[in-house]
Amino acid sequence: MGRLTFSGFVYDQWTKVPPVATADLTGKTVMVIGANTGLGFEAAKHFARMSPGRLILGCRSPQRGEAAIEKLKQETGYTSSELWIIDLAQFSSVIAFADKFENDGGRLDILVENAACAPTSVYSGTVDGWETALQVNYLSLSLLALRLLPRMVQTSQDHSTKPRLVVVTSEVHFLANPDKKLLDAPHTLRTLGNEEYCTSSILAARYNDSKLLNVFFFRALNDRLPVSSNSVIVNGVNPGYCYSELRRSFTGVRAALDWLMEKALARTTEEGSRMLVYSAVGGEEDGEELRGEYISSAKVAEASDFVISEEGGIVQNKIWEEMLEILSEVDHKVHHTVNKYLAGPGK
């Protein structure tokens, strides 16, 4: 149920992936973050074939982004994709991206937050003073979601639709084993991002921990969307273990073991991208049954035992409050979003 076993993992990996979900996206705007390669690019190709009014590719590198735009055009024939630059390792870049979209005046029907990085065993910090994977995988994506939420709510009101916000997480959140003392400490996130705390053993588990934080985020956000205006469907998706550039920094024995695992178990990148697309357009009728859910293998699944436990709920709320404090210091518009569009947990 809420546990990850090796046999269950192998079974899921060897189970045939369902065909890609489809929808009519005419006139709608789709945004994919981390779209120039891997799962994000493959998902963008699927969306392009559904003829959205706009397809925005959020990428860090202008050169790689432009190459993705051209490749997308060649492989799908779609000509309305747009490259928007965003560097999740810089809060200023995330804010500029959100400000640009706020001023753009357009609708936003689907937001897929796919970007992530895998930390090495040596601490790497951002210009904002945070451990890189914590900021890229969690804090910046959370900031972007909160900044773009008002536009998604407005889209729902203006067009009588139910926009979807998809947070790409992973089954490795089952493997996260955060220190209880750290969870009980006043400043959990600030400690996690501190260089002194980030030893090589801590960083070895950082990717798993960041994916747990992603699960906490989408569940907490969903829990605070008021019933009276519960128009945006928020969910989290596990694409499964796929061929990915995410692990391109692996070296030595770690790289060799990952190569063997890929040969034996990995889904193709395109197969993994179908999970992202399902979360964005799939489900029965309007996809209401996907609201607030953890999705795996193109169906609603159960998050880890820790996440769904009473203790997990307490930690989730605590992390949410600290995250809001941090992000409100970074961008004052976060406070506006929370006050105007969200309610307390449990609505």
Which fold name is given in CATH as the topology? Rossmann fold
Q: Helical amount among residues, as a percent range?
A: 40-55%
The CATH class turns out to be Alpha Beta
- Average per-residue pLDDT, rounded, comes to 92
Total beta-strand segments: 8
Low-confidence stretches: none
Instruction: Please give the alpha-carbon distance between the first and last residues.
Output: 27 Å
Q: CATH homologous superfamily - what is it?
A: NAD(P)-binding Rossmann-like Domain
The major pleated sheet works out as: 8 strands, mixed
Task: Give the helices and strands as they follow along the chain.
Answer: HEHEHEHEHEHHHHEHHEEHHH
Largest beta sheet: what is the strand line-up? Answer: 3-2-1-4-5-6-7-8
Give the overall shape, derived from the CA principal axes: globular
Chart the SSEs and their pairings:
Elements lengths: L5 H9 L14 E5 L4 H11 L5 E6 L2 H15 L4 E5 L5 H14 L5 E4 L18 H28 L4 E5 L11 H5 L3 H5 L7 H5 L1 H19 L8 E6 L13 H14 L3 H13 L12 E3 L2 E3 L3 H4 L1 H21 L2 H9 L6
Parallel strand pairs: 1-2, 1-4, 2-3, 4-5, 5-6, 6-7
Antiparallel strand pairs: 7-8
GO molecular function: oxidoreductase activity
Pfam families: adh_short
Organism: Hypsizygus marmoreus
How would you describe this protein?
Helix 4 runs parallel beside helix 5 and helix 5 packs parallel to helix 9. This protein is 50% helix and 11% strand. The two termini are 27 Å apart. It has an eight-stranded mixed beta sheet with strand order 3-2-1-4-5-6-7-8, sandwiched between helices. The longest helix has 28 residues, at 132-159. It is of the alpha/beta class and 347 residues long. It contains 14 helices and eight strands.
